[in-house]
Design a protein that fits this description.
By secondary structure, the protein is α+β, with helices and mostly antiparallel strands. It is built from two helices and six strands.
């Protein structure tokens, strides 16, 4: 009886269709940089630099303005004339399910869309 149950289970497992797997991947664009931002405090300079970065990254479309998802990001600050100057840079990214390739992307040269 147990063997019959095992055989039926294996047969059912083979015959039941399994949904196609999908993957969430991070899709990134070219490096974006803010201008060098000066402020009285480091906190204010960082905040404004990230705000500028987000505005520039948004040109790629919805979701690309997320600093949290940016790849190879950096927020660099230094003292300048009794103020703090900061610059934000990074590759804007989004999370997509089964993303389509970007037409004309050089990484896809020779591959079908």
């Amino acid at each position: 009886m147990r063997r019959l149950f095992v055989r039926l289970f294996v047969l059912a497992a083979v015959l039941i269709p399994v949904p196609q797997a999908s993957a969430a991947v991070r899709v990134c664009r070219a490096m974006v940089s803010s201008e060098i931002v000066e402020a009285e405090s480091e906190r204010a300079a960082k905040s404004e630099a990230i705000s500028q970065w987000r505005t520039r990254a948004a040109k790629y479309g919805k979701g690309y303005d997320s600093w949290r998802l940016a790849a190879q990001k950096a927020l660099k600050c230094f003292a300048k004339d009794e103020k703090v100057a900061c610059v934000a840079l990074g590759h804007p990214c989004v999370i997509q399910q089964n993303p389509r390739r970007i037409p004309g992307d050089k990484r896809d040269a020779g591959q079908s869309l």
